[in-house]
Amino acid sequence: MQMGTGSLWWRLQRAKHRKRRELNKQSMEILVDKVTLFYLIPFLIIGLLVVRDLLQAHNELLTAVVNDLSANVIVISFLTIQLGLFQKKPVFGYSSSEQLLIHLPHQRQVILRYFWLLKGGTLLIVHAVVFALLYLLLPLPLTTALAFFFWVSLFRGLMLIIRWSIFCWHGVRGYIFRFLASGAIIIAVIALSISTGIDRINLIGLILLTLMSAQVIGFFMIEAVSDFDRVVAMNDHFQFRTFFVKAVVGKVLPLETPKFPRLSLRNKARAKPAPMGKTSRLYRRVMWSEAVKEQALILQTYFSVLGLIVFLSTQGFIFLRMGLVLGLVLHARLFSLLFRLMYQAPLLKSIPLRIKRYVVPYQFVMNLITLAVVAVGLAMMQLMYQVELVDGVMILIVAYVFTNEWLRYRVEESLNKQKPLSTTMIFSILWLIGYIIVYRYHTIIAGFAGVVWISYIWDSLKMKRGASE
Amino acid sequence: MALLSIRDLSVKQGETLALDGLNLAINEGELVALIGHNGAGKSTLMKTMMGLLDFSKGEIVLKNYNLSEDPLNYKRRVVYIPEQPFLLTELTVYQHFQLYIDSYQRDEQVLTPVIEHYLQQFEIQDKRDAFPLSLSKGMRQKVQLICGLLIDADLLIIDEPFIGLDVYAQRTLVNVLTDKKACGQTILLTTHQFDQLDTIMDRYVMLHEGKVIEEGSDYQLDALKRRFD
């Protein structure tokens, strides 16, 4: 008896799920022993209770924030569109096992339809749980929580096919499309933030209509817009690399993600490489390749930063300053992460890399972007709150110094073989103190200066630097 | 005094103890072959010696430079050729040589004729501007070999050097290793092909379940081969 496409597909998903669960279980057994787990759970519960108490202590502030945000619920919902827009994993888990079904009498279109339903259903369940938790933890009115749930689910649901298509775009065409898509999102977010009343409703209607049309057209043209080789390779690579598996295996065996030619213009340029006058070009090339490989992560982070700054600038001056601080933290963390990813290449780990020459051009690029990020924030400040020019320049300088320090610390720490957890934790706590200073005194300069000062003191107290030259 | 001293080295991979309190000393100018069954810990030892894997206990010291305390100075004195070439996809063959020359602080002008010599010996002289993705597995292996052979470091570590090479390249490599040894280079390698090393090997070290279980000199190799057969 021939099995229907649906039941065969469902069996495959269940088998995959079983395997993932088994792998997670094995990984958990390696990661956490039962005795630790026994002690960990009460600590987690106590931690949650402490967080709840802390939130209740600031109930008034939270209520004020929620009331302010509820007016902009749709803007926030729209911001969630870009979450996961540029990601490494395809939206649907179409892997080589599903590809095999195509060689049997089963249609790909039908299989993709099932995936669409599964993903949509999962989204609804996840959102329901998240918003239920938020409703229980935060002083959110029921109508606001429901509105968040509705809009976020609607927008993210409408983005399923679009996100799938964006994942499939690569080469120069993909680069241009991604650029256009990102531009459209920025414009939409800015327009939504500054428009009021009937304009905002019209704008949202237009966006919804566009997304719906894109969803419907994309769904019927899914075969045409898909690059199944890329989708299958990526899903095969990622489908059993769960969070816990990576935590166990990642340290022992850093697996390379499948590589695809991303920018065909660059590939053509590779055919005849320019002669290497200076070896520093080698480092630049390695850095550039890492940036291209991680472009999804970079774009996503900067969208978040930009969206955050733009949105918070509409909420008030203090919110904008908080947004700038958070933006800089995200930016610095991204750069230290990228540097560490770069250094994960076994070849670079096995040779005595002249690290200073590696860090200097990297810092140069990072600082340029830092200045751009801060400049956007300052432009918003100037535009909306008429900040003194001197204050703006001060902020720019301090931000520049601070991110430099952060990167130097993180990079050198990552290259040092001895990386005690306590060091990282103490630095994070110091950062938190700096952040509190910013919040408490409403003066971004004081906060940054405090953090830089603490980091200098910390540096001087730190023992030898290990691998740095 | 030994050039390289490994004392009480333990490496954990998950719950498995891949190296279990391993001790090893290599003298200057020696060619030592690490042998053992699959999973004995040969490659793990080499990767640990290069800082690619963390170790839970013990120390690795080369000429007073401790890998844990002074990794940069340690690595400047060791060059490693892995079993699976790990070339960077963004660099051409020649740029890999430049990266090695730059990292080990050697003079490119002095080494340019050496590069040409090796490119010719391994018959890849027309591939100097090619990217690794366009090369066959054997060619990539040759590029990785040249990267390592170029640098006259105190210790040359080679993991399974003959795998993936054609017969001519294997012969070339044996000749190069013979020359290097004659010049006093210290070499540590793993192999299952003892025949290739008959004439140049000084000593073998046999690993089993992460421990050294036997050591012997070249004249004991025949007996060893018979045991393996």
In short:
The complex is a heterodimer of chains A (469) and B (229). By secondary structure, chain A is mostly helical.
**How is the biggest beta sheet of chain B arranged?**
6 strands, mixed
Count of separate structural domains of chain B: 1
Please write the string of helix (H) and strand (E) elements of chain B: EEEHEEHEHHHEHEEEH
Number of strands of chain B: 10
**Secondary-structure content class of chain A:** mainly alpha
Radius of gyration based on Cα positions of chain B: 17 Å
State the CATH superfamily name of chain B: P-loop containing nucleotide triphosphate hydrolases
List keywords for this structure.
heterodimer; A: 469 residues; mainly alpha; 2 domains; 22 helices; 0% strand; globular; B: 229 residues; alpha/beta; Rossmann fold; 33% helix
SSE layout and pairing:
The complex is a heterodimer of chains A (469) and B (229).
Chain A (H helix, E strand, L loop, with lengths): L4 H27 L2 H24 L1 H12 L2 H7 L16 H8 L4 H30 L4 H17 L1 H9 L2 H24 L2 H24 L1 H4 L2 H11 L4 H10 L11 H8 L8 H14 L1 H19 L3 H27 L2 H5 L4 H31 L3 H27 L5 H21 L2 H18 L8
Helix pairs in contact in A: 1-13, 4-7, 6-7, 8-10, 9-10, 9-16, 15-17, 15-19, 16-17, 16-19, 17-19, 17-20, 19-20, 20-22, 21-22
Chain B lengths: L3 E10 L2 E11 L4 E5 L6 H8 L7 E6 L2 E2 L4 H5 L2 E4 L11 H11 L4 H14 L15 H14 L4 E5 L7 H16 L3 E5 L12 E6 L2 E7 L3 H8 L1
Parallel strand pairs in B: 3-8, 3-9, 6-7, 7-8
Antiparallel strand pairs in B: 1-2, 1-4, 4-5, 9-10
